Amino acid sequence: MRALAGPTATANLNAMTSFAPSLRTSPVRRFTLACLALLALAYGAVLILSAPGWPQIAGLWPISIVGLAGALVASATGVGGGVVFVPVFSVLRESGLLDLGPLQTVGTSFSIQCFGMGVGALTWLNRYYRPGVRPDEIAHRPVVGRVVVMALATGLPALVATQYLAGMNGELAFLLFKLFSIGLGCALIIQLIVLRSPHAERERLESLDHVLILLIGLAGGAATALFSVGIGELLALTLFLRRFPVDICVSTAVIVSAVSVWVGSHYHFEAGHLDWGVLVFAAPAVAAGGFFARRLAHALGGLRLKLMTALWITGSGAALLVL
To answer: Which end of the chain is more exposed for a tag (fewer CB within 10 A), N or C?
Structure first.
């Protein structure tokens, strides 16, 4: 018995040692599972509130395609899915295919992004803490954490204050969204031109970066309150122009956007601005898009994907001005 106990104890010790790395990542995994469970519960509530029948299913199932496209763009580039949802919903409204006013369009875009940006943020978070993570990604963790905290420190108060204190004028918000889209699209094109030139990447925050991130939180939070996009887009654009690595730019933008839309959705839920029928079809699609977005970004390449996104944002904003 003693002879058998020795090897058995050694085997158990070796098994525990080999399991130790997974224990170190377990807090992130537990957090991810908890968030996914909350998303599943939220979608269950959406199903109950919507209770879609066959006529609604036949009329709204194409929304799933819009949701998938929006989430792929959002989580792969850091540009919020609202740049896809708001123009498409507006065109469908003008065509008489969807009964959504400007505030309902913004509110529904907020709620859809809760699922897409939420899954996208979890995907990026797990990338930084996965087994076999690269040394450069480990070095990026504290930078990502500081950027997210600083952006949200000013962004969330600006978001909530704009929603509850400034008032929400649907027509004005829609006009500002059109102008914002055109400006953002042009800025992305300029960014692509800058990125094509050789340059050294920066991986440390300087004093100017801290100031810019705090200011972006204020401006982006207010913009997000008005048309469901803004803070993540401005953050990603600024970090790109400041020559930070792509993964830092996109991951911080996605995580900040995810937290912002979850906080901002409460206002629209209270005000009754959500279309549950649209959400019931869009939510699963955007969740899938948020999961596969990073893989799509690597498959297409950053420059090609960003060029397609910039052309869509600029073109859709210009088209909406004509409508």
So the answer is: N
